[in-house]
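Reviewer 2 asked us to include a model.

Predict the structure of this chain.
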Amino acid sequence: MRLLHVLILISFSFSMDVVTIGDHVFLDKDFFTKYGKDEWSRSDEKQKDRMLNDYIKREACAIQAKSIGFLNDPSIAIKLRDRSNMVMVNSVYEELVAKPLVSKETLSKTRNNIKVEIDVSHILVAYKDSKLQQPPNRTKDEAFLLAQNIKGKFESGNLFNELAKKHSDDPSAQNNGGSLGWVGWGRTFGTFQDVAFKLDINTISDPVLTDYGYHLVLVKEKRASEHAELMGEELEAVVYNASRGTVSHLLRNAAASFDSLKLSNAKVEYNDIALSKIVNLIVDEKDRKKISGQYKVDLVSLFDDAEDVGVVCVYNNRGVGIKWFSQKLRGTPSSRHPNLENIDNIKAAFNIILLQDIAVKLGNKKQIHSGGLYINQVKSMENSLLYDTYLKWLVNTAPKPDSLLVSQYYEKNKEEKYRDPVKIVVREIRVLNRELADSLLLEIQYGLNFEEAAILYSKTNPSRGGLMQPFSEGKYNEMGNVAYTLANGDISQVIENLDRSFSIIRVEEKLPEQYSELKKVYTRIESLLIRESQKIAKENGVEGLFEKLNIIINPDFFNGAAIEKN
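Predicted model (structure tokens):
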């Protein structure tokens, strides 16, 4: 329920059109909602081509899906409603729980630093009570004195990266010399961040205490961040997003308190008799399924078919039952259904859905749905749903192969795919001791029955007299290689295996080369051809959109990035 982490959608100050698809113009802020500006700037030309191509395909498919009328499909409308409700729930928790925890002081500090990035390194000197996974056995005072000593060595001319490799308790220092690379405000927290962003270039800090120990911080370079040109609401969105991490440890408790208050205000009351009936329903269904070897219970089907158990709970003077609960679960895979085998679990599951219901109503009351964040997220979610639905629709248009096509494929690929090579059948006596193996071989040569010896002594397949499944050349390493040098009835010398066991084998039969019958591989070939047909239908359908819809790319933004249509 407490889906507190909400992605802050970042737009950029000077909007520029990126691509036009039909009558739809997509701006840089639309594109960077899908692909972050930082991700884009780090990508090479080939990666940018892929990103652009993917973006155009997704948007084009969504446009086409709308024109076909997919939004009028009741099943899609239900999915859209449910996902929009989850966006609303997230938005409510963000607005009413997370944002109030971020202080004005934190926002101000972030605003002052967000437009700069620093290339920073550190040396960590931990102590036995620090949060390091394997802290050294030194006291806090000893760690402080050691950190001071290391600082003195740097100021005396020692290289920082060499000191980090020698002294830092950060395991990664051995590879990176203490470098954390380029970081922006909000990527690190607490006193470490405060000190690092105030440091002059090539100046080492005094020991900085965090939960992990004492840090010596060095800033090697500074530069403008990707947010350097942001202003107004766009800047404030980034400032909040970067500040939010400072209160992440408070959010869980704050969310729990918020939930408790909402349930209290809603005056939720449960009917224990109805709850007991639900438990009995589920237990009886599980017992019934166990008889047929099934263990999963589809709660939606069970509750839809069950007799009404009465009002399960009342909230805000409204009574709800298992039919209401079933409707809320509809569309959720049975593997994700909650465990409802006791009353407490049922109450917890109902509470989650009640809280979602209450949050949606609260969000509508506070008109969160009119905010840009909510609108952008719902739009993005809607396009993703339409894109996935359109691809499935294309797949369903694929023609299914007939028996002639299956036969033709079989004949064409018979030699390469459906030919069984010569196989060999052997009996094996495998033991763990060389002396025992030598002794058994000698006894077999003097008349001991091979099969009986395998039953008595072999560590593998003793119940089958050492008989192995037929295998082809190249299998079982040395033992398999030896087998293919023997004729029917031949017995090998003692073979030493890779696992240091010892084998004696007798060749029972060499099976000739043969072909799998068409009827035995028919279903496999048919499934393969269906997948290929579906792939072609999907690719041709998307390719057709590039020809059907007029697509214009702004070269000023993409710097001449090439578009691949497939």
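The longest strand covers residues 213-224. The two ends are 39 Å apart (CA to CA). We have added this to the supplementary material.
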